[in-house]
Amino acid sequence: MSADTETPLHPQRLAHSVIGADLSFLLARANAVSLSAANAGLAGHGLRIRSYCVLALACDGARPSQKEIAEFLRLDPSQVVSLIDELAGRGLVERVPDPRDRRSNVLVATDTGLEVHSRARVDVVRAEEALLTVLSAGERDALANILRKLAFANE
Amino acid sequence: MSADTETPLHPQRLAHSVIGADLSFLLARANAVSLSAANAGLAGHGLRIRSYCVLALACDGARPSQKEIAEFLRLDPSQVVSLIDELAGRGLVERVPDPRDRRSNVLVATDTGLEVHSRARVDVVRAEEALLTVLSAGERDALANILRKLAFANE
DNA sequence: TATTGTTATACTCTATAACTATA
DNA sequence: TATAGTTATAGAGTATAACAATA
């Protein structure tokens, strides 16, 4: 930032490139920004974005199976295993065998899990809000509606 | 999909969870969908999304330095090194020393690189279009404008 | 002294296949 | 035979620190 006084190459110099107008690229970059904000917010809670999502689903009362969690979060079932192992090891969630299909486990949060989640959620929401200040309320709504279509396209 | 006749657990069952309304989550999931579509489109060209982006920037004529590429794509400079190594090894791009700062390399595409890029671009765009059919033209514009703000927030 | 690019390393994430127990 | 979850493993992506050449 000091030797470039003659040619101040700021980051957005490339924003007018072909790829800079590409929706996939913008989606990827916006996601990267959002991801690191969320992870920074979660750092103090011993969670990362993935484990937070699994915990959040467990706290939601929907009693999701591991397979449902995998599909919803777009993770491989084997990744869900280790995420739950970690959360269960900390006493935040429990695998409950589904009586209607004994192959299947259903995920529920413990009381500790509920507490940890609600504290972590405060920081996740705060980090997200900080990012979203660049958007109007209308833009946020529009973004949510459009992303929902895209996120669950062909499913 | 057969044993669940009594309780048809479709993927969107969890869409009404707290996290299913979260902008960060929707952004992450939409990006995952878009990423795998793009990578599928690139598979036949020996490229992945990252190498394609670097190649695209090289083809753009902006003569970006490795540092600019790293910042724009939100990659670590060391990742850019190996991406360029790979592309240069295939004769698609060349590192040109910047005469104004001999520490710095500037990336340019070879003729082969331009050809490979333009062929790959066809499939990337096709994959993206297939995904975007769920959106109206107005929604696409809105999405691009909103994502641009988010993607380059605080920079 | 600071910066660009490079190398090395470790850690996380992703993708695959094979196994078990149930259905 | 098919499915839910598990284990193991390899490959891709991410993050960090240290180094050489140059500013």
Tell me what you see in this structure.
- The structure is a homodimer of 155-residue chains.
- The first copy, chain A, is mostly helical and 155 residues long.
- In chain A, 57% of the residues lie in helices and 6% in strands.
- The first copy, chain A, has six helices and two strands.
- The first copy, chain A, has a two-stranded antiparallel ribbon.
- Chains A and B meet through α1, α2, α3, α5 and α6 of A and α1, α2, α3, α5 and α6 of B.
- The first copy, chain A, binds a DNA duplex (23 and 23 nucleotides) through α4.
Which SSEs are present, and which pair or pack?
Two copies of one chain form a homodimer.
Chain A (H helix, E strand, L loop, with lengths): L22 H20 L6 H11 L6 H8 L3 H13 L3 E5 L7 E5 L1 H22 L4 H15 L4
Antiparallel strand pairs in A: 1-2
The first copy, chain A, binds a DNA duplex (23 and 23 nucleotides) through helix 4.
